[in-house]
## 1
Amino acid sequence: MLIQIPRGTYDVLPEESGVWQKIEETAREVCSLFNYKEMRTPIFESTDLFQRGVGDTTDIVQKEMYNFKDRGDRDLTLRPEGTASFVRAYVEHKMFGLPSQPQKLYYIGPMFRYERPQSGRTRQFTQFGVEALGSDDPSIDAEVIALAITFYRKLGLKKLKLVLNSLGDPESRAAYRQALIAHFKPSIHEFCDDCQSRLEKNPLRILDCKEDHDHPLMGTAPSILDFLTDASKDYFEKVKVTLDEMGIPYELDPTLVRGLDYYNHTTFEIMGASRGAISTLTGGGRYNGLVRDLGGPETPGVGFALSIERLLIALETEEVALNQETALDCFIAAIGEPAHRKAPVLLQELRGAGIRADKDYMNRKVKAQFRQADRDRAKFVVVIGDDELAAQSANVKNMTDGSQVTVPFENLTDYLKSKID
Ligand code: HAM
């Protein structure tokens, strides 16, 4: 039996990887523009990290984690997201003590969640995320949002919608919690088992339950905005004003609670064009208590993550084609055994000079070598045979206009360089 790829995963085939590279390159460029530095953390972490960081009552921790024991009997988990790992690293390396604050960091890498696979939802997916740790200035909330939008715009997406909410400070959350319990309690038996057990532990989680999404009580649930303390309102106001002044439009959605427990104050999502059911491209927000919860000093943080998988769907839906330059500069077509031996030597020289070059490795006839050159979209084909070897020169065909010239071997690199630069 053929072994197949695990459910919920996919291969990025060679003809697709150029787009991925372009996206990752753009992410790096935008991060550099905004002064965010890359940090790399392990793909697996202690299971505790996500239980404490993401939250015991979240879907991610309860249903979606890839947990395993290693041979040393340690409980480990393939990371379902990046924020908890970054906060762990920030605490572990005492980055809170560095003079440069906030620490503005980013990551691009695979995450793993055992979810029901569908368009835009895979079990291994690639997140690009940023985390700004150490500042509670509302303008940095606006900055991370601006970074995500700049990234999407640079790639050519136009149909973006920013949705914003505030979950307030712990005091606002506590008042809201009581109101939610009072709202759901009388009819909680109509909800799924998870929601029933979440009612007292974490009623906010009921609001993003995938199963009870359409229950009438969801639509009439109290709004967090009515429970914000003055300080929380003031903070949210400053974020909104900064976005207004930066010219970044948004919609308010008081039901935006997000699926991870660490959020407070600003939460946001960026929605995009999608033919499928899932249109959330990016999720993020502020998580002021997380550094403390994971053993560090009281430190504010804010960030977002987006997946390349959902971005690809949005690009496709908006019919944006990312240009990828994969054309070869030069293909060497060799005729006869001596020319086949000369070809690697020429290749080595051309490549050494930065010319993208290749040759035939399939013992093809010359016509078929030209067809391969076409498949590689070679700009020039360098033909060498016995006559060329005797004359120490090559026949160079310009594949764009069909013209041909004879170029001495010793001038070949310079000639091609002058033509392709
Ligand atoms: P999240 O909302 O769980 O937040 O995920 C962020 C983004 O990851 C989503 O908007 C989506 O683009 C993508 N994503 C999530 N699950 C999948 C999946 N199964 N398949 C494809 N894409 C997926 C977080 O992960 C937070 N750590 C974000 C954050 C960073 N908040 C503050 N800093």
## 2
Amino acid sequence: MKTQAPPTLSESYSGVPSRLAAIAQEAKDRLYSHKTVPESVPRQHNVRLPPDTSRETFDEAVASLRQALGHENVVLNDKPLVDGWYLEHPNTHDAFHVVDQEELVCSAIAYPASTTEVQAIVKWANNYGIPIYPISMGRNVGYGGSAPRVPGSVVVDLGKRMNKILKTDADNASCVVEPGVSYFALYEEIQRRKLPFWIDCPDLGGGSVLGNAVDRGVGYTPMGDHFANHCGMEIVLPNGELLRTGMGALPGKNGADNPTWQSFQPAYGPYSDGIFSQSNFGIVCQMGFWLMHETGHQSYMLTFPRDEDFTDIVEAIRPLAQKGLLGNIPQLRHVAQELNVTGLPKSHWYSGPDPIPRDVIRKQAAQLPCGDCSWVFYGTQYGDAASIKTQLDIIKSAFSKIKGSKFYLPNDVPPDHYLHSRALVCSGVPVLRELDWLNWKPNAAHLFFSPITPTRGEDAQIVHNINVRLHKKYGFDLFPTLCVAGREMHYITNIIYDRSSDDEKRRAAALMRELIAEAASEGYGEYRTHLLFADQVARTYSWNNNALMRFNETIKDALDPNGILAPGRNGIWPKKYRGKGWELLGDSVEKAVGGRTISPDKVPSKL
Ligand code: ADP
């Protein structure tokens, strides 16, 4: 089946570079060939109104916003909802819906063209008491996409008209971007200008450079911590005021931007940037980023034969990472992942309805380049050839202590092997390969469970055991990817479910609930989560009678007294909503699967 061509970068700010057009087409055709749900179904409800807002007030508010932004820049969300796919994603709802498709929806979408227009939207929201929800590109797939937490919020889609690379400074090796600049767009511009820099991108290149950093996403070059490598922000506060952080707070000469805005992060006084990440305290309209100088690089793969090697591998990584011998944040994946990154459906490997049994994974992996192994490590070293050779000698020697480990370079595996796409991502080239595992199930969607543990075998094993047991209990294949740094590791599992099946959704939601609770009872917490689980995760950070949440609420209420900006994001509810039934705790997510609203009963939020 040939589907309609996905948009290219020359057609749309959110499109794919022409170098990837054929790959994108192939990925789309393959995904759509497994789709059994219709493109859209008729809406059950009309426009989902903001809470506590009558249709008359809403219509009046929309008319007034249209006057400020232009009629065409405020669009009602009243058409059938289309989930689309990664490159043609909706800004109307969560394409990977867990609860009803019409639950995490906006009432309308506003498209500002400038910071001034963002300020106008914020003032408008305060006037009408209508919640707004800013997104940059909305490709936060697995964490809620572009959906607002409060149904009926107005999504502020910043990316469509604010997508300029405002500055690239070759001397300072930095850039300043607006929300709609994707990794694809930044990479292509740097290539076009033949600048000697790399960017750092996550597994998929279509996300917003700014949006991903604000949500504290990660990539895989030595500059993989995106928020740590930003420098300077311009933010519209919930009262409409404009703020520059860092050195940007000091006016440059004759009204120019401060010359050290992208050079020195903290400036003077409290370092405030952090409170604008994973929060609902402001709308980020510009952000500076440091770029990495291009360098030699060598990606490689190591395999380990036994499931029980897990703790020894983690123990071997720790000193290497702490001494700075590992070039980037390497990934350690269970061999089950080798099956799903081929892009072949689960049915190709196993016909049963239950999770693939370990012996079947073993048999199938034996036919793949990785062979019959249990864990696969993907790393990259940087520098000139001589230094890479020295680094690799040390690394090979450290891992050789684990019996049966094997080392592979890209030349040792076929051209379509995943290692080649790792080599691109780990040298700052944004690609699309990671979409492949969405072919695992028909209508595949996914949730991430992303706890942090110390880089210590014992801790990693506790979280792994919880995952093994609970994935089995709820009938899901376990796909762990561990991003291992010197002192902590992100243990990320990818829960893949069929979005046409309420039963799978309910089980996926129950699995998330239990994973969050059990990990927390052992002292491990998530670094990021889907919108629907934000309340549960936020409440696990409860030390000293929820001191951290009370602190966040104090800031929220001071900055946003009317509670208009992204209420509920990261579990932070403004006073107006707090304790009134909005929080999704206990089994409320799984109970909402299949139709029940996530809004409190007494809010007149449906027409
Ligand atoms: P991406 O396309 O990179 O995944 P998103 O636009 O989906 O990024 O952003 C991820 C999340 O971060 C959004 O859901 C939103 O809550 C928040 N966010 C994104 N951009 C901004 C911004 N410019 N200002 C404030 N919050 C933002």
